[in-house]
Amino acid sequence: MTSLSNLSGLENLADRIEVEEIYTPEDFERQFNAYRGATFGLQPTLMQSNHFRPQSKSKVVEGLYFTGSSTHPGAGVPIALEGGKICADEVIKDWEGKA
Fold first, then answer.
1. What are the boundaries of each domain within the chain?
2. Phi then psi for 65, rounded to 5 degrees?
3. What are phi and psi of 67, to 5 degrees?
4. Domain Amine oxidase, which positions (predicted)?
5. pTM for the full predicted model
6. pLDDT digit string (tens) for 52-77?
7. Which of 10, 39, 58, 69 could anchor a disulfide with 75, C-beta 3.0 to 4.6 Å?
């Protein structure tokens, strides 16, 4: 395995670091209200995957919508962006239905 300090231009990297912060799950829970310190949302278990994930539209509260990597369709930037589109489509559909 190559150390970063062995790469061209990074030979003195460690000497140039001015601030280093380490975050623990407890820090994420306290500072970001992340449930049990989860940094990536739901666990990738079968019952938290695909359509088992929380959907874009609340079934309990009218006008409440969700998006992000913990909602359907799932994690990863392209997939989370698609989740945002799904959520926006739900909002538009509901908004047009009230007009």
1. 1-39, 41-99
2. -125, 155
3. -155, 165
4. 32-92
5. 0.54
6. 888 889 988 888 898 888 888 877 78
7. 69
